[in-house]
Amino acid sequence: MEVSPWRTEQGRLARHNQMVLLARGEGDLADFARDVLAGRAKPTDLLYRSYLSEETLDAARAGIDEWHALPEEERQAALDGAQARTREEIAALAAADLSEPEADPEDDEHDYDGGFMKSGW
C-alpha cells in the first residue's frame, strides 16, 4: 500500500505552508489555520469539530452537489488525474518561500525614495 503524499516530509511541509497561506486571510478557515499554526488544533480537527460557519458549509455542499451533477466520464477523468495533480500541488506548496509575509500594497503609504531626511541635513 502506497503512503499518502501528504504523510511524507514534503507533504508535511506543504500542509504547513498551506496553513500559513490560509492564516493570512479572513474568515473561519483563516481562524482555523491560525489555530493549527499555534498548536491549538490539528488539520484533521476540521473533520471532527465545528470550526466552519454555515455559509462555508453551504458552499462546500454546493461543490459536492456540482460534483455529483457531472457526467460520469468527467468525474472519472478528474479522478484519473487526481494523484498527479495532488503531487504537483504538494511540490508547489512545499517549494513556496513563505518566510516573509506578503506586502499589503494599500498599507504602503510612504515614499521611501522621496528623500524626507535630506531636508534635515
If you had to describe this structure to a student in words, what would you say it looks like?
With 121 residues, the protein is an all-alpha fold. Helix content is 57%, strand content 0%. The protein has helices spanning 9-23, 28-37, 45-48, 54-69, 72-95. α1 packs across α2 (28-37). The longest helix has 24 residues, at 72-95. Mean pLDDT is 84; it is low at 110-121.
Give the N-to-C terminal Cα separation: 71 Å
Instruction: Report the radius of gyration as a whole number of Å.
Output: 21 Å
Number of helices: 5
Low-confidence stretches: 110-121
The overall pLDDT, averaged over residues, is 84
Write the layout of secondary structure elements.
Layout: H1 9-23, H2 28-37, H3 45-48, H4 54-69, H5 72-95
Helix pairs in contact: 1-2, 1-5
Short note summarizing the structure:
This protein is mainly alpha-helical and 121 residues long. It has five helices and no strands.
